[in-house]
């Protein structure tokens, strides 16, 4: 393979990885934007999403088969279910802590994370579970670069989800209310906006997106595990910080940048793929040192 | 002119152990501009927050259009047509002027009506119309105040609470803002105005209340207050 072929192959790998990071980072960033909570349980919501998808695929495959139709239906249903799980977590664990010191709610998030992965660990006996899909390895060839249909569909699905999210956030009243709540909650109350339900809606959307990423990761990697949320949670957090935490386009950008950097980082001399986590978190440290607001983070301007 | 829009009886509020409001009673009649005067920390903004539901009062009665709204959540009170334009304007910086206005009409389901009200706001404040797609955070202080007031007009209000609309503005802008207050009132909107600038406030108001350390110490027609020696000494200066 020529250098150019390697470049394109890694570009595809980076985009796939980046799509997963972006989808998870969106939920991180949206929740941080409105209640300034680093929701460390978010990676585990992604993991639970993957398992819910697996169960639903098992239930649906006798009727829809193990192809894309089944995956699509399973993904949509699991997004709704996991979205509701997000709302439940918010109601049970976070709402009672909203007026508590910031550190308490952060610890609550860690506790929620442990509850989720321990629950899944206990119910799966800590084993890897194979994702019951059968998609084959067909694809298209560009010279020496081979891209499977699965890869194309996953990246396009992410793009579709993000476009829908973008329209929701920028065009609908509920989306605008979500952005406004990130700016000034009391002012929102004075506009007649029920802040509590908009926060719940944010958790729903964020969790549903993480679930979509979880299902896609299951489809892509073929097997899932109760601890899969831990690392991606940290990576998505890194992605959100790279893009500027609280910024929605920032989360997408940060995820893609991180995915691409990791993919290309494995090609650097002396740095093999086992170093890719070091690479990701090294970038986080550098960014926090030199541009702590992230690439698209906002600095407030006060005017009189 | 005589029907009472807002009636507050013996309102009490606490911040922790601090007794911020000690039995405020006041009345706003339909079509009036009523002003609440007082020094910093007297309890004016606290009274406003209790009325709009941002702060939960600890005792008393608040009746709006004959209905008890005491302790109701803010988003519920807004739907009844009682709008609070808070101190410091609190516009949504980072969103466009148009989006700010749209959020003002969040409770409205009818898009045609929303458009009609927005056109009306742009007619009142042409400067907002010209820049409707610009970031609201880039407006000057006076323009931000106009946006905050315009946003309050998007809801279909019966009573508007204006908290310190002149705060931090140059004197010539204060005059402009007061003209707007007068104009809104002429369009039939009842206004409860909190001001530290007593001269300006009494210039537009029909009736005034004076608040000191959480209590109403004086109230009368604005004309009478303007010529009262105690008011002149304490609030009008010179």
Strand tally of chain B, please?
A: 10
Q: What is the correct CATH architecture of chain B?
A: 3-Layer(aba) Sandwich
Number of domains of chain B: 1
Overall SS class of chain A: mainly alpha
Largest interface: A-B, 22 and 34 residues
Q: Oligomerization state of this entry?
A: heterodimer
What's the CATH H-level homologous superfamily of chain B? P-loop containing nucleotide triphosphate hydrolases
- CATH class descriptor name of chain B: Alpha Beta
Largest sheet of chain A: 2 strands, antiparallel
Uncertain spans of chain A, ≥5 residues at pLDDT below 50? 300-304
Q: What best-fitting shape of chain B do the alpha-carbon axes yield? A: globular
Into which percent range does the helicity of residues of chain B fall?
25-40%
Enumerate the strands of the largest sheet of chain B in spatial order, edge to edge or round the barrel.
6-7-8-3-9-10
User: How many strands appear in the DSSP assignment of chain A?
Assistant: 4
What is the end-to-end distance of chain B? Answer: 35 Å
pLDDT average of chain A, as an integer? Answer: 90
Task: Report on the biggest sheet of chain B.
Answer: 6 strands, mixed
Radius of gyration of chain A: 19 Å
Q: What would you say about this model in short?
A:
The complex is a heterodimer of chains A (304) and B (238). By secondary structure, chain A is mainly alpha-helical.
Topology (SSEs and partners):
The complex is a heterodimer of chains A (304) and B (238).
Chain A: H1 3-35, H2 42-64, H3 68-94, H4 102-124, E1 129-130, E2 139-142, E3 145-148, H5 149-171, H6 173-183, H7 185-190, H8 195-221, E4 223-224, H9 228-243, H10 248-265, H11 276-290
Antiparallel strand pairs in A: 1-4, 2-3
Helix pairs in contact in A: 1-5, 1-8, 1-9, 1-10, 2-3, 2-4, 2-8, 2-9, 3-8, 5-6, 5-8, 6-8, 9-10, 9-11, 10-11
Chain B: E1 4-15, E2 18-29, E3 33-37, H1 44-52, E4 59-64, E5 67-68, H2 74-79, E6 82-85, H3 97-104, H4 111-124, H5 126-130, H6 141-152, E7 159-163, H7 171-186, E8 190-195, H8 198-204, E9 207-212, E10 215-221, H9 222-226, H10 229-236
Parallel strand pairs in B: 3-8, 3-9, 6-7, 7-8
Antiparallel strand pairs in B: 1-2, 1-4, 4-5, 9-10
Helix pairs in contact in B: 3-6
